[in-house]
Amino acid sequence: MSRVGKMPLPLPKGVDVSVTAEQISVKGAMGTLVRPVNSLVTIKNEDGKLNFAPANDSVEADAMSGTMRALVSNMVNGVSKGFEKKLSLVGVGFRAAAAGSKLNLQIGFSHPVAKDMPEGVKVACPTQTEIVISGADRQVVGQIAAEVRAIRPPEPYKGKGIRYVGEKVVIKETKKK
Question: Which of 8, 5, 1, 3 is nearest to 65 (CA)?
Fold first, then answer.
């Protein structure tokens, strides 16, 4: 059996979970997240802990029990604490500004770039060269951060572009004659 799937998932205070045959719903301070339940996994809520077990003895059911536990764990952490990704802009004249649910970027193109944020995702710019994307759904926050980075990824010769905070960019040596 999956090692991850064997571990019970403790529920923090303020998190409410409802499990049906089709879906699992997690409700907390940061919002509500809903995910369909795989038919290969059985989920039981016992004494404030969620237990995941494979529905049969197949390898797929065993693997899916660990996957479902990890996904539901991310849902529980998301509605209780939330997730955030930090990006930084490197380059002369590169700026970012958050206006409501829109991120406005000036990153060396001839035109400004605007990126709309989906519902449930917040964007903030503490400084002109920092972007903080936060929300309850880990997958959506990571996807939006990747899409913003893809607008102008770091280039290998000077390192200019949008990068994750803490990301190492390997700088190439320029060609010599």
Answer: 5
Query: Can you read off the two tokens belonging to residue 92?
Result: 């002369």
What's the rounded Cα separation, in Å, for the pair 128 and 97?
A: 6
125-162, pLDDT tens digit by residue? 999 999 999 999 999 999 999 999 999 999 999 999 99
Reading the block at residue 40, the tokens are 């290969």
The pLDDT averaged over each successive group of 10 residues in the chain (177 residues) is 83 92 92 93 90 92 93 95 96 94 94 94 95 95 97 94 94 88
pTM assigned to the model: 0.89
CA-CA distance, 91 to 159, in Å (whole number)? 8
* Helices vs strands, H then E, count in the chain: 3, 13
| Residues 41 and 53: beta-carbon distance below 8 Å | yes
Q: Which CATH number fits domain 83-164: 3.90.930.12, 2.30.30.40, 3.10.180.10, 3.40.190.10?
A: 3.90.930.12
Can you give the pLDDT at residue 175? 85
CA distance 142 to 12: 24
